[in-house]
Amino acid sequence: MAERIRWGVLATGNVAVTFTKDLLVDPKTRGVDRLVHTVTAVASSSSAARAADFLKEVGAPEDAKAYGSYKELVNDPNVDIIYVSTPHSHHFQNVMLCLEAGKNVLCEKAFTVNAAQARTVVEKAREKNLFLMEAVWTRYFPLSMYVRDLITSGKLGNVTRVFADNSVALNPETTFADGTHRMVNPDLAGGALLDMGIYSLTWVFQCLYLTQPEAERKPPKVMSSMQKYEPTGVDESATILLTFPRGSQGDAHGVATTSMRVATNPDKKGTAGPGVRVQGDKGEVQIMPPIQRPTRTKLVLHNGLIEEKTWTPPGPGVGSGWRNGFGINLHPEGVGHGMFWEADEAGLALLEGRKESRLESLEESITIMEIMDEVRRQGGFTLPENIETTDYLI
Ligand SMILES: NC(=O)c1ccc[n+]([C@@H]2O[C@H](COP(=O)([O-])OP(=O)(O)OC[C@H]3O[C@@H](n4cnc5c(N)ncnc54)[C@H](OP(=O)(O)O)[C@@H]3O)[C@@H](O)[C@H]2O)c1
């Protein structure tokens, strides 16, 4: 019989709605029969009424609890694992709150604001013998597994370069004119790098770092350039060149770019070309944007083979009346967003007694935070001390 994973949801914003709706889809629709996810409680820092509205919106079980504070949630004995979905400025404090209360955690990206905070939460999780994982959902897509297999099987030959871009032309002066939105607000750890650049780095890392034997993975060298968004001082664009030592295969270059000024996918239909190109000496695989939720790949080999694939996430299907998506951008009826795969990995870890993800170790999350620290250092971009701190303030 399938075991039940009892989730608590900390914060009720946009991504919490998307994640929780996906979480409640029957895992059998994606061939998973060892577990079933349920939501036992949710907390909103605004009010218990907001938490209750959230439970209705996502279709949670009738007996799920609605709390008006995060502290009440972390002390609920009927919660096995907490999904943290506050702005990244708050991840460190919120994850520490969960861990101190003895709860396992799946925390949204960016994991924390800096590597020192990431190291501190990892140490706390280890001290308390709890599961902790950064919610970089893209890694858990079957599409990502296909791409990693192309690399490790040698089908692309020796992979020596990966380009990954995650840029959205957000027109910040008008879209975020008052400067309070988390994309541009330094008090909420705003800027393109931590919000969107993490996906470019995710692609580069899952292709050039995760695909190496664990003992041989080494942090890359970093060169970068950053452009600032003048009204608030956060980064509006970052371009990062990483050099990965890959053992006997030699070095490989990863080029990770992000911007809120220009777009990877200007018409939102993917006609402008790939968002990621993984290049080896036998050919390349292209991943069409959006690269955080990719659904199309194109393999192009020197031997003339061209193979295009579509990877629509499963879900309850046509006739279910169920729709998910992010914000106002809904997918066709019955199609999942794709966040359930990361939840499955977290749930399986709890069943198996594992304390971290198989596809992104905590060491790798820390290494990626170190890269983002270095890019911010090279770009002269610091955030307010109260959100960079490693002092647990509660
Ligand atoms: N994986 C993905 O695809 C994805 C997509 C979007 C965002 N994200 C990540 O998820 C996190 C949240 O993003 P979001 O789009 O859901 O943001 P959002 O809609 O602004 O929601 C954030 C929620 O955090 C809570 N919160 C607590 N303190 C806050 C503060 N000082 N200011 C604002 N909100 C505060 C609020 O919930 P309560 O009032 O209920 O406490 C708020 O609704 C970010 O770290 C972001 O990078 C991930």
Automatic annotation (TrEMBL):
Under catalytic activity, the entry for this protein gives: D-xylose + NADP(+) = D-xylono-1,5-lactone + NADPH + H(+)
InterPro entries in the record: Gfo/Idh/MocA-like_OxRdtase_N, Gfo/Idh/MocA_domain, GFO_IDH_MocA-like_dom, NAD(P)-bd_dom_sf
Pfam families reported in the protein's UniProt record: GFO_IDH_MocA, GFO_IDH_MocA_C3
Every copy of the GFO/IDH/MocA-like oxidoreductase domain together lies at 146-285
EC number, UniProt record: 1.1.1.179
Output the Gene Ontology terms for molecular function. D-xylose 1-dehydrogenase (NADP+) activity; nucleotide binding
Root EC class? oxidoreductase
* Gfo/Idh/MocA-like oxidoreductase N-terminal domain: residues covered: 30-133
**Keyword annotations of the record:** Oxidoreductase
| Family note | Belongs to the Gfo/Idh/MocA family.
Task: Spell out the protein name for this chain.
Answer: D-xylose 1-dehydrogenase (NADP(+), D-xylono-1,5-lactone-forming)
